[in-house]
DNA sequence: GTCAAAATAT
DNA sequence: CATATTTTGA
């Protein structure tokens, strides 16, 4: 009976720098094609008001090369974020459930295609696993021990079918914008947290203390691609 | 030291 | 874009 998220007035923790867009920082970085194409959103455990000690950072003129010792932490997929991921995929449909689309639909700042792609891969394997286990087997559902994060999110029913039919929708006229006017959710990624007195839900539903709620992705019927006047929704024009 | 999750490479 | 492999975190 619970299917709608509860939009609590609580917001996520204020990030240090809200003025610096990751893109700008990204422009400064990227010395090599394959290094670490990730925006740096450093959640400093220590409040860093940016001391006026830029000394060697900027140096005089010509000093460029940004701090080389800045390594970026890994992405932490919190259940909420995964929920949003599933939500986006569910609303897009298997047909359009591609990393790029998902990423854009999620509108999560700091999230890149690679992140989504990787998670999507795992998600697909999780679904496949569940399918294989459901065949001729009664009772044994997903083990709480396997797929920790995935188990926390309800899997939409329409995920279990590959594709209804090769029906091509040639109605490229109406494009509907969805959840594009949302604010700018920030991605929370920390190095590692030690769940001190947090967590410990006896019923298996573990939760993460961080990451508040993201702007809801309003949407309706998924990919009811049944022929007829079904309106499949398409994504907005190429954004990023 | 092991397993899982994320990143990266193909 | 999907899959496989490697790396990193727990």
UniProtKB/TrEMBL annotation:
GO cellular component: nucleus
This protein's name: HTH myb-type domain-containing protein
Keywords of the record: Nucleus, Transcription, Transcription regulation
Pfam families to which the protein is assigned, alphabetical: Myb_DNA-binding (PF00249)
Stored PROSITE patterns: HTH_MYB (PS51294)
Listed GO MF terms: DNA binding; DNA-binding transcription factor activity
Native organism: Hibiscus trionum (Flower of an hour)
Stretches the record annotates as Disordered: 29-73, 204-240
Keyword flag Transcription regulation: yes
SUPFAM superfamilies associated with the record: Homeodomain-like
Cellular localisation: Nucleus
Lineage: Eukaryota, Viridiplantae, Streptophyta, Embryophyta, Tracheophyta
Domain HTH myb-type: 77-128
NCBIfam families, alphabetized: myb_SHAQKYF (TIGR01557)
